[in-house]
Write a structure and sequence with these properties.
The complex is a heterodimer. Chain A is of the alpha/beta class. Chain A has 9 helices and 16 strands. The chains are: A alpha/beta, B alpha/beta. The complex binds flavin-adenine dinucleotide (FAD) (2 copies), iron/sulfur cluster (SF4) (2 copies) and FE2/S2 (inorganic) cluster (FES). One flavin-adenine dinucleotide binds at residues 33, 43, 45-48, 62-64, 66-70, 108, 111-112, 212-215, 241, 257, 264, 268 of chain A.
Amino acid sequence: MNRILEKEFISDQVFRMRVEAPAIAAKRKAGQFIILRTSEDGERIPLTIADASAEEGWLELVVQVVGKTTKEMSMLEEGGSILDLAGPLGRPTHIEKVGTVVIVGGGVGIAPAHPIAQAMKNAGNSVISILGGRSRGLVIMEEQMKAASDRVMITTDDGSYGQKGLVTDAIQKLIDEGLKIDLVVAVGPPIMMKFVCLLTKKYEITTLVSLNTIMVDGTGMCGACRVTVDNKTKFVCVDGPEFDGHCVDFDEMMKRQRMYEVQEKESMDRFQS
Amino acid sequence: MEEKKLTPKERLQIPTQEMGEQDPKERIHNLKEVPFGYTPEQAKLEATRCLQCKTAPCVAGCPVEIDIPTFLNQICEGDFKGAAKTIKITNILPAICGRVCPQEEQCQLGCIVGKSLKTVDKAVQIGKLERFIADWEMEQGAADTPEIKAATGKRVAIVGSGPAGLTVAADVRREGHEVTVFEALHKPGGVLIYGIPEFRLPKAIVMTEVENLENMGVEMKYNMVIGNIHSLDELFEQGYDAIFVATGAGLPMFMRIEGENLNGVYSANEYLTRANLMKAYSFPETDTPIARSKNVAVFGGGNVAMDSARTALRLGAENVYLVYRRSRIEMPARVEEVHHADEEGVQFLLLQNPVRLIGDEDGWVKQMECIKMELGEPDDSGRRRPMPIKDSEFRVDIDTCIVAIGNSSNPLIPDSTPDLETNRWGNIIADDQTMKTSKKGVFAGGDIVLGAATVILAMGQGRLAAAAINEYLKNGEW
Ligand SMILES: Cc1cc2nc3c(=O)[nH]c(=O)nc-3n(C[C@H](O)[C@H](O)[C@H](O)COP(=O)(O)OP(=O)(O)OC[C@H]3O[C@@H](n4cnc5c(N)ncnc54)[C@H](O)[C@@H]3O)c2cc1C
Ligand SMILES: Cc1cc2nc3c(=O)[nH]c(=O)nc-3n(C[C@H](O)[C@H](O)[C@H](O)COP(=O)(O)OP(=O)(O)OC[C@H]3O[C@@H](n4cnc5c(N)ncnc54)[C@H](O)[C@@H]3O)c2cc1C
Ligand code: SF4
Ligand code: SF4
Ligand code: FES
């Protein structure tokens, strides 16, 4: 039952976990996610399916430790198991041959960007991937992204690896090179997605973003995940997680993500002591 | 028996038996069930009030037509086991229905005793007696597993484990078919688990009913979001011969007023799911958080609104306002719930309607603006239409707001099943006698067909569907 096949830290705060889930592995498409729960009193948390093998029946999750549940999950070992795992959830990424696609992955967002890059490439697109992180240790999955892309650019805030700067600088560079970009897909922290969208809007480049709102059920029943897109309320778990980035109200979304800040800290402190 | 010799007049003189209840001041600090239930003596006395009418209007008022006079008579005779049998012929979940049915609009509405005493409040307390019998049976230990007919080799998939799905599982399994229930969440029961709070329906009861089904050989599969993990066509390919879709209502509705996406604003589904299914009332011992509120506004006047308001009190809120645009008599909630909410200190803001929510700089709700209403001419539903009174807006400080104005239908299954017809609200269209849908082999029932309904109506549709499924599996005719 959802046996953990592999677990390994790929940077300070990020680990990847391979979990047995044959039915989901057979069904999932790029852009979809799962919801899991690690213990009887645990929280349900959504995680993108970063990779999967239908033949071998596993899913790969790449997770950043940010609070109690991800911490607890990071302490599970190979041979253990995940109590509950439901999916695949959300609508798959719309994959189509459009020409040149720029995939932007920020931090742990590189993991969910990976299957999208793969699928876009398989559909015959020219794929340029931009990987961004605050510092060297936060740029993950470089090898896999190289395999899935025609070109990879790396930026770090502190210049410890790749170009010093933000992912938006790299996009700007491509535009300045005169490259015709047909589509941008951005996955990462909301603040990154917001600034990518501000830039691409200026150049009228269609931009998809994958939103990571707070969720409970993931089936459209509760409305915890709602966001405003084009002035309408949408549910990320059933209408998304991908949306036209130029229509998303990122400021509202960022505020909503902080809804349980105080409780999250309390839960983490309690867990650590 | 001595009781038998009582004249109708004497029976009418027996006072209505009240259940003991937790003190409102105490119970708002715990999650334990509010009413204690009848003692055997009380149950017998209450059942003695029944006049054993030949016409039995009570039976006609019950959506699953329980043979009420018979089971009441069995209670009088002390034959509790027999009473349980009688009830279970048509209702497999009496411990639940006895607690949550709107009896005053159903079985108890037409009761001759109530009519003679000129108030439905004094009708024979059929629901309470049903609860008594079901609880008595549970106390005796595991219920007898009903007889299962010889295996037929046919397989039935049930999507959703709410009252509709559970009813069909029992009725179809009894005929000897193999039954698998697919549930999206990690626990069974649907609204019975994630929506209706512990203090009104102890979860242990629901879990016992599910165990009984498992003992009958029904297979429960959790974390299975049908439509995503398997489409209905794929279930047929996997060898299921018939499918019953009972996915419940789904998507919560909002008021479409300014400020509804502010922090601190919940759908009732989210608030109750966090509190019940995810046990947020025990946070931080459990991991799922919920707002710690001082001043809570709940919008709506149904059972869901009452449950939300009473849950907020138990989570420590100082003021809970229930804002409803009509007056108290129009509230769709069960009378008992309104009464309990009132006793517990929920403040009713009647004939008022929220018009917007006002937030602070950090995006948290801090006030609601409401407008006063008056009742005008009756509308299509026969209820008087509430009309806003000009310039009567006022504001109230709040830090949490719970919107309990209903649900629309969940799109996951219709979207993945193009040949399944839905109406313009997205509800699955099913024949009202056989629950057959537009797709061969697929039946549907409960809230996904009815829109928001009740537990017993969902079960009633389940019974119809089960009969039709058993028939279909026998002769293959669609
Ligand atoms: C569709 C989707 C895909 C995601 N994919 C990934 C992924 O591949 N890898 C990854 O590391 N993270 C991913 N996330 C984010 C991940 O779900 C959260 O980091 C996780 O829930 C944090 O839980 P926690 O208890 O460790 O932290 P907490 O201390 O509870 O919270 C820390 C942060 O996580 C957010 N969060 C808390 N609870 C939830 C919740 N139930 N749902 C969503 N966010 C929550 C909070 O807003 C806060 O910013 C995804 C989120 C969504 C919605
Ligand atoms: C808070 C609240 C209080 C209520 N109080 C009362 C009351 O006092 N009396 C009364 O009679 N009625 C009450 N009701 C109404 C009553 O609960 C419902 O009418 C009844 O539960 C409907 O039953 P159902 O089986 O159709 O669906 P539900 O109980 O909604 O169950 C549906 C199940 O299907 C699952 N599901 C959904 N989609 C999928 C999918 N794609 N794949 C797999 N599984 C899926 C859901 O997770 C859920 O478990 C209340 C409702 C609420 C919300
Ligand atoms: S099932 Fe409901 S309506 Fe029928 S007798 Fe019982 S309480 Fe009354
Ligand atoms: S209507 Fe009332 S008095 Fe008559 S049989 Fe039914 S419960 Fe008894
Ligand atoms: S997470 Fe509940 S509706 Fe999206």
